[in-house]
Design goal:
Blueprint lengths: L1 E4 L7 H10 L4 E4 L2 E6 L3 H18 L4 E5 L3 E4 L4 E3 L3 E5 L4 E4 L2 E4 L4 E5 L5 H5 L1 H6 L7 E5 L5 E7 L5 E7 L4 E4 L4 E4 H4 L8
Parallel strand pairs: 5-9, 10-11
Antiparallel strand pairs: 1-3, 2-3, 4-7, 5-6, 7-10, 8-9, 11-12, 12-13, 14-15
Amino acid sequence: MNAKPQENLKITLEEYLEFERNSEIKHEYFDGEIFAMTGASLNHNRISRNIAGELTNMLKGSSCENFTGDMRVKVEAIEKYTYPDIAVVCGEIELEEKRGVDTLLNPIVIIEILSESTEAYDRGDKFSHYRLIPSLCEYILVSQKRCQVEKYVRGDEGVWLYSSYEGMKQTAIIESIKCELPLSGIYYLVAFEK
């Protein structure tokens, strides 16, 4: 999904939560600003559905659960609220419950589907912010333009290790939740532009 700034007016966290509770669309919040989450492309929706379906099937019977883009996540260290495309949590779910809105605090895996308007942000500032979540073990970026999945794994002393999977015959391994996602499944029915 694309994040579009609303206005240049700064609002408080309490005002954001009240606004979000009554809003018909989702908004991210950071540093007093809110950003409307606009619609996503057909490919984005297909990729999201495919990943969520695969994860749901693989995680059945485990202590892990996946959530799609409607589950808000908070980066507590900087008071940022965001909606990742997919978040996975294992064990007890930690929620911030304010003003009737639930916000996930302890994702283990976050997956973002890249678009032209969000790719630089997803790779840059957003990833920097996500790294401040102590529970986060893996950050995964999924391209809409080509068959490519990139993965960052938190290693020793906070060093993030990079790997890339390319081609329909490859399988992306998500170690922290013991799942394997074939790229052929991720990209089922997805048509790449030529």
